[in-house]
Design brief:
Helices cover 35% and strands 16% of the residues. The protein is α/β, with parallel strands linked by helices. α2 runs parallel beside α3, α7 crosses α8 and α8 runs parallel beside α9.
């Protein structure tokens, strides 16, 4: 921990999941799969792990109500930021991302939140819960932060109306399929400092089926990595990120391995450039 630049916060939690369960087991599954990820990244010609990657003990959240769990995440992320560590929140359901963004608000005066998600998560409440995973970006909006979404393909009429009323920026999945150069357009809309909140259901289920709410017509791994590379190449400063909503499927390891590989590649492209000679 002392020499690591990057610190992972395992935060298994599934109190408000609304379809498939399993997000409480996600961090452990990702850690297990990560043991099969090669350390060397050929395109970068380096080993990103050389910058130092540590992990905290798992946060004990499962018995907590959503608002309390979000508070625990906020405290954990804030502590790491004050120690000049780069935080990775490993969920767990998407509701927890609110805690990370609250912590960032205390440290940074200006930053963008880039959300990769099949859904906008802008409901006022869901099943009577204001801190549901289906409401997380509505709560983020209330912090005075306007997210930019990429990969959305499922939302309610009310959420669509809110997007229009507030003139919020969304790159829908169908627009990405038919368009080109969208990665640079997204990067141009972001501030210099960026927090990435990546709900794994942004992936097409054919590539990553193990999520709580799979939606057809999603993004490909190559598209997501292309966006990450563009952020890095355009000089964006990634101040942290989360990977949420993995729900492991028994007997299948593709989803957790893909997540582990993506985590490592984000670290490589966005944070390991200091290793380049």
């Amino acid at each position: 921990f002392q020499t690591a630049q990057v610190v992972i916060i395992p935060a298994g939690y599934e109190r408000t999941v609304s379809y498939r369960k399993g997000t409480a087991k996600a961090p452990y599954a990702i850690f297990q799969a990560s043991q099969q990820v090669e350390l060397y990244e050929p395109e970068l010609d380096l080993e990103p792990c050389q910058i130092g990657i540590a992990s905290l003990p798992p946060l004990e959240l499962e018995q907590l109500k959503p608002k309390q769990a979000i508070g625990e995440v906020e405290k954990a992320v804030e502590k790491l930021l004050k120690q000049n560590k780069k935080p990775i929140l490993l969920g767990g359901e998407h509701s927890l991302s609110l805690g990370a963004i609250r912590a960032l608000k205390k440290i940074f005066s200006e930053f963008s939140v880039l959300v990769l998600d099949a859904h906008t998560d802008l409901r006022e409440s869901y099943s009577g819960e204001k801190f549901s995973h289906a409401c997380v970006m509505r709560r983020v909006l209330e912090l005075g932060v306007e997210p930019i979404w990429v990969g959305v393909r499922s939302l309610s009429k009310e959420e669509a109306q809110l997007l229009k009323e507030k003139n919020l920026e969304v790159y829908f999945a169908h627009q990405l399929i038919s368009g080109s150069g969208w990665e640079r357009k997204v990067a141009q809309r972001l501030r210099e400092k960026v927090y990435l909140s990546l709900d794994l259901d942004v992936f097409d289920p054919s590539q990553l089926p193990g999520v709580g709410t799979p939606e057809p017509g999603g993004m490909l791994y190559s598209q997501i990595l292309s966006l990450i590379k563009t952020l890095a190449k355009t000089g964006k400063n990634l101040i942290g990120f989360d990977l949420v909503e993995l729900a492991p499927i028994e007997g299948e390891v593709v989803s957790e391995f893909t997540t582990a590989r993506l985590l490592y590649q984000i670290v490589g492209w966005c944070w390991a450039k200091s290793l380049l000679k």
